[in-house]
Task: inverse folding
């Protein structure tokens, strides 16, 4: 009997200690999750306007300046984006036949929404993701176990926030499209098995991750088709699955037939051929160019994909990245496609230690205009000219 009671006391103490540890962990992980409540910092440095208003509509590229705090909550994210839309509206650029394009990865970092303040205030992306993992251990472990890819940790991090990210992104873009009665090419967000149902972006919460762009109508409903990035980069290949190039959709908008390319896809002639064959007359590119001043660096060549046959084999290790972007993406590849109007949007800001770079590219009547971009937010408006986009 004595031994039995002693063993019982040990079990009781052990269970009590476990409960205390679990309780303490739960309290810790739930504290410090208040979102940023200050005014959004727009940091608009330049606005560009190309062409004249012929009543055929226009394409507006919003290149926002994003901070970690802008992802701290759904309200902070909406307020930040709405500030740029208000500025474009103030300039008379937002109409029923306007298309607004947002940058790549704009929705990806919504994985910080509702997280501990130390996630979105961390000095480096590594520190941020470590804290994200530590404060969400159960869901991260579950995601890592089920990961259908090589990088189980990155997969688990994005999977753990998939439904939250999809909901915030969809509600924000749907709200803005409806508020300003415009079409929005929604940048991109990384989600597990995403789809559109009843006009809204959804995710199953499991399965492969995709880098996708939803497109919203002026009534706030998303088109049924999603744009899925086809040519995933070396940084993405271990946790992001590619789409199929023949599945790139073309959208019937009030301004004409629109094609959307996510960053690396704009480096490949076959992507433009698919859009051209589907009779697109407008194309927008959502991009993220990582690394401060990276466009000044020497171009290393194509990332994680076979180099197209029309690329000069002496260009890698010789020309700058900026020159490569001009030759082999939207400005250089649109010629001969029949696509008449287009614009580029890049993600900028101070997101941990990721860094970023960008340039301004606008296409009118098949002719590109390229300018350097400052360190700050940029709004670019391209009026659809006499040839129209329809």
Result:
């Amino acid at each position: 009997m004595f031994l039995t009671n002693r063993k019982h006391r040990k079990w009781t103490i052990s269970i009590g200690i476990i409960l205390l540890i679990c309780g303490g962990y739960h309290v810790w992980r739930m504290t410090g999750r208040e979102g940023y409540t200050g005014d959004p910092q727009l940091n608009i440095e330049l606005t560009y306007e190309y062409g004249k208003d012929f009543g055929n509509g226009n394409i507006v590229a919003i290149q926002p300046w994003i901070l970690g705090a802008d992802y701290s909550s759904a309200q902070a994210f909406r307020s930040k984006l709405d500030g740029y839309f208000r500025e474009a509206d103030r300039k008379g650029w937002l109409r029923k036949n306007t298309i607004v394009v947002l940058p790549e990865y704009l929705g990806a970092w919504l994985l910080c929404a509702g997280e501990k303040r130390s996630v979105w205030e961390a000095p480096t992306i590594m520190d941020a993701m470590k804290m994200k993992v530590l404060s969400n251990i159960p869901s991260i472990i579950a995601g890592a176990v089920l990961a259908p890819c090589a990088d189980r940790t990155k997969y688990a991090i994005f999977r753990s926030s998939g439904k939250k990210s999809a909901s915030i992104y969809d509600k924000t873009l749907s709200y803005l499209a409806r508020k300003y009665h415009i079409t929005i090419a929604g940048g991109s967000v990384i989600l597990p098995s995403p789809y559109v149902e009843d006009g809204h972006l959804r995710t199953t919460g499991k399965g492969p991750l995709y880098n996708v762009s939803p497109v919203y109508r002026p009534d706030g409903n998303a088109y049924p088709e999603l744009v899925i990035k086809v040519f995933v980069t070396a940084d993405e290949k271990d946790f992001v699955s590619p789409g199929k190039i023949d599945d790139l959709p073309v959208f019937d908008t009030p301004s004409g037939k629109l094609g959307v390319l996510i960053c690396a896809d704009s480096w490949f002639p076959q992507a433009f051929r698919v859009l051209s064959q589907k009779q697109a007359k407008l194309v927008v590119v959502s991009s993220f160019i990582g690394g401060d001043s990276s466009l000044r660096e020497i171009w290393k060549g194509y990332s994680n994909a076979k180099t197209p046959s029309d690329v000069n084999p002496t260009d890698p290790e010789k020309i700058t990245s900026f020159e490569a972007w001009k030759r082999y993406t939207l400005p250089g590849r649109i010629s001969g496609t029949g696509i008449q109007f287009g614009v580029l949007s890049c993600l900028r800001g101070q997101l941990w230690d990721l860094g970023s770079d960008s340039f301004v590219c606008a296409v009118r009547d098949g002719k590109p205009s390229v300018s350097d971009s400052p360190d700050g937010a940029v709004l670019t408006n391209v009026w659809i000219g006499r040839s129209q986009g329809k």
Summary: The two ends are 89 Å apart (CA to CA). The mean pLDDT is 92. The longest helix spans residues 2-30. The longest strand covers residues 44-50.
